[in-house]
From TrEMBL:
HAMAP family: Glucokinase. This is Glucokinase. CDD domains: ASKHA_NBD_GLK (cd24008). It comes from the Bacteria. One of its GO terms (molecular function) is glucokinase activity. Its EC number is 2.7.1.2.
């Protein structure tokens, strides 16, 4: 029986159909801004087709029936959505729970090794990824397989790694108060980085969007944008190293999310790995831990397809 699977972020809503545990089929991406709520987007995707079950991954905490997205105006009631769509079962899960559930099912050619050694079987796995926000999850082994942890780890406090980053953090603190990792490790975060670095450098910043920052860095036409992308790579490595230490992630750390893929060669793999390991006395602990860049773009849907409903 085919079920609806979805991965809904702050910008994109991705839909597919899948057999439980099977590959996503008939994938389609819709823009969040084009629809008033998830129900309208789902109905547009289904186009009159009926399904009895659905697993929907959302980029926000799932703590009650009422779901409000962190980085978009969408909100909905789980019970009301189930009734509107006529579903016998509906599971709404955090988007990085879905990302984490996909990791054991990725093929070797869907991953790029960023450094480290061999994962230790049966040890925790870390997953993080910058997109519209910064998602963080983990896979914890248990008697009956993996458990994916829902977290809001993207909102932990940013930890600068050098004097330049400390000065940058001071500027961002004046602007935001609390500066989380997500404030710099996300689409908007890339622009936040460039704006803070422009202030530090006493330069005018022509870039007005994250895409502008990336484009200027790609051509080398803006030194501030080049530094912003390099700083982004380093800070992502620091966040990944912190995650590995917190989890004891000897099973490895996976970097998902769309931004690193879109950056392509601008994503400084070497800087990422250096900062991943740069944890003082814990370098020896971190050096063997492998880190991978996830190359497959639909891992949220793949993980949703592998989520077990209560009837299974």
């Amino acid at each position: 029986m085919l079920r609806l699977i979805a991965d809904i972020g702050g910008t994109n809503a991705r839909f597919a159909l899948a057999e439980p545990g099977g590959p996503p089929q008939e994938e389609r991406h819709l823009l969040v801004r084009d629809f008033p709520d998830p129900a309208a987007a789902i109905e547009a995707y289904l186009a009159g087709r009926r399904v009895e079950e659905a697993v929907i991954a959302v980029a926000t905490p799932v703590e009650s029936d009422e779901i409000r997205f962190t980085n978009s105006p969408w909100a909905f009631s789980i019970m009301a959505l189930q009734a509107r769509l006529g579903l016998s079962q509906l599971a709404v899960i955090n988007d990085f729970v879905a990302q984490a559930l996909a990791m054991p099912h990725l093929a070797a050619d869907e991953l790029e090794l960023l450094g480290g050694g061999t994962p230790i079987p049966g040890r925790a796995i870390g997953v993080l990824g910058p997109g519209t926000g910064l998602g963080v999850s983990a896979l914890v082994p248990g008697r009956h397989g993996w458990t994916a942890l829902p977290t809001e780890g993207g909102h932990v406090s940013l930890a600068p790694g050098n004097a330049r980053e400390r000065d940058m953090l001071a500027i961002l603190s004046e602007r935001f108060g609390h500066v989380s990792n997500e404030r710099v490790l996300s689409g908007q975060g890339l622009l936040n980085l460039a704006q803070a670095l422009a202030t530090l450098s006493g330069r005018e910043l022509a870039a007005a969007t994250p895409e502008d920052v990336t484009a200027a860095a790609r051509t080398g036409s803006c030194p501030v944008c080049c530094e912003a992308v390099a700083t982004f790579s380093a800070l992502l490595g620091s966040a990944a190293g912190d995650l590995a230490l917190m989890l004891g992630a000897r099973g490895g750390v996976f970097v998902a999310g769309g931004i690193c893929l879109r950056l392509g060669s601008l994503f400084d793999r070497a800087a990422f790995r250096r900062r991943f390991e740069a944890k003082g006395r814990m370098r020896v602990y971190l050096e063997p831990i492998p880190t991978w860049l996830v190359l497959r773009p639909d891992t949220g849907l793949l993980g949703a397809a592998h989520y077990r409903l209560e009837s299974e």
